[in-house]
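Technical note accompanying the year-one report. For the benefit of new consortium partners, we illustrate the data format agreed upon in the data management plan: each record pairs a sequence with a C-alpha cell string. No post-processing was applied to the example shown here.
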Amino acid sequence: MPPIGSVPYITAWSGEQAPRMPVITKGRGIGYADERPYDRDSEGVLWTRTPSLPGKGRPEYGRVHTLRQRRAMGELLCQVCARPADRTADGVLWLSGEDAREAASWSGDLVTAHPPLCVPCAMRSVASCPHLRKRFVMLRVSAYSPAGVRGALYRPGHPAPVAVDATGVAFGDPRIHWVRAGQLLMRLSKFTIVEPNLV
C-alpha cells in the first residue's frame, strides 16, 4: 500500500491507537487473555495489537506503526513508499542517521529498527528530515538477518506481569518471551558505506 500523500508508510496515524490490551502470564512468558493466532510471529513473539487505518486522523511522525514497520522490514520494502527497497549487486539500500565519522569506525554488525529505502525516497528523506540533514550514512547491505524485536519488556508480577523497560531483545534470548514487540530489528552484518551520488 503506497503512503497517504507524503506521509511515510511506516508512520502511525492518530486514528491508529492500539487498544488497551492487558497482558497475562502465559506459558513461559506473557500473552493476551483472548490471544489470536496473528498475535504472535513464527518465533512465538507476542506483538502489540494495532489497527491499520492509514490516513485516519493526523500523521504522528515520531511514532512507528507496528504492523507496517514489521512488514517493511520483513519484506525489504521501502519504509516511505512501501515499494521494494533499492537493490543492486552491492546490496540493499539502508539509510542510517549515524554520524559519518562514527560509521568509519564501525566494525562488526549494525542492528537497526529502520527498514530499507528506495533511492528516490532516501534522497527525499535526507533533504526533508531535520535529523538526517545534520548527519546520515547510506549503506549497501549484502548480508542481513532478523535480529530480534524492540518493545515493552515485562517481568512476573501479581496479579499481572509488570512492564519494566522498553528495549531490544535478540531472538534466542529467553527474555523474548516477556516482550510485547513493537518493531522488528534487523542485523546488518556485511555492508559498505556509499556516497549519495553513487547510490
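Partners are asked to follow this layout when depositing records. The first helix runs from residue 66 to 75.
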